[in-house]
Amino acid sequence: MTDKKTPYFFALLPILVLIALLAYNVFLYGDNSLGGANQLALLFAAATATIVGIKFGAKWKTILDGISKSISNTTPSLIILLLIGSLSGTWLLSGIVPAMIYYGLQILSPEIFLFATAIITTIISLSTGSSWSTIATIGIALLGIGQALGMPTGLISGAIISGAYFGDKMSPLSDTTNLAPAMAGTDLFTHIRYMMYTTIPSFAITLIIFLVIGFTYTTIEEQDINGLLSAISNSFNISGWLFLVPILVIVLIIKKTPAIPALLAGTLLGGIFAIIFQPDVVISITSTASLTFSSAYIAVINAMGGEISITTENEMINNLLSTGGMYGMLNTVWLIICAMIFGGAMEATGLVRRVAEPIISYAQSTGSLIATTAGTCVFFNITASDQYLAIVVPGRMYADTYKEKGLAPENLSRTLEDAGTVTSVLVPWNTCGATQSAVLGVATFAYLPFCFFNLISPIMTIAYGYFGVRIKKLAQ
User: Fold this and answer.
1) Angle 144-427-203 (CA atoms, 0-180°, nearest 5)?
2) Which of 46, 47, 49, 65 is nearest to 10 (CA)?
3) What are the start-end ranges of the E strands in 25-94?
4) Higher-pLDDT residue of 422, 140
5) pTM (2 decimals)?
6) What contacts 169, CB < 8 A, 6 or more positions away?
7) 380 near 390, Cβ under 8 Å?
8) CB 228 within 8 A of CB 314
9) d(CA 65, CA 365)
């Protein structure tokens, strides 16, 4: 902490620098800003915080110790992220993810198209942990089907995005789902279980709305999806037995097994199932003549550690059947480390508390604190143009306040996701909004009114706060 009170402008300066750099990065790099530019922006902002802190009395060693402590707190999250990358690889290689897509596509019904669209994108996003890849692959197919049925593109896009972001938000494979508890100071599966209280009702309301709207449209004819199903079944041995692995992981989660061993078990079983159920895929990945111990080992290790892709006769499915393994998680790991450097510098210099003072003074009740947190998340989605910062900065700002008010950290992590993750796609200049608008070919403001899940979620979490519903207190 500084020895003298920092003027408010100087306390706010690192955040202003961060916002300016992030906005400029999005302008220059677009979707590639997460490839390093935003991480460096965090480091530059951390340097600004350090300079301001030292100017107003903070010690260099104190700041460095604060950064070290901040980074060390994320060690479990970093291990989990690497395991998630490896799990994604073996679940693709084993056919688990393709099986989820295969069976999910078959629930499509023209009479309840919007409802089915939200369900399908939910299934795929849950299995992959990525709303972006879901929207960019199956989302495009569903958009074409909906257009053939005569539905407005904005409405179809709303159903696609609602399901994709629900699945992304609830998936342990998602980077934002890992980032939020890391910022708040809780663990991954506690965070997911606690999110269910607000997220499931929000999605249930969304599905009801889509059902009501869907029955007001007359469908023309059922779109043939046999080509997609054929591409998957011709490349993988699709079997219900493949679901044993995700079921086991779910059981482990329910039994409150720590995240790291649960994900490791899922990863290793995915590799075993790949050898048992997908020998042809293993052979094709390694370009060998037959399945041997060496080829099986190479395929599984490559899937866990690096990039693999499965090629079918359908280009749309090909885009979905790829993964980066642990390697694909490195940008997110880098982002978290840089965010922790920024957060550690801001905390060690006392600038976070100084910035939050006037804001927190208005948040006397639990409801107003949660509403203020949600509003701050939306503010950063609009000004910083990045959903990660809409989670990181408010998470670091309010973590101590929640503890001081006797609130468990999962209240904060839930609010960060309910307001930060899901509203990013509603901002045209945010990386999420710009990407999804370009991928779907639909203007952000055209689909915004129909992204019911994304609009309801922040309202739901604020309502829970004001009415005291499912607000967990710290254990005494």
Assistant:
1) 65
2) 49
3) none
4) 422
5) 0.70
6) 176, 177, 195, 199, 417, 421, 422
7) yes
8) yes
9) 33
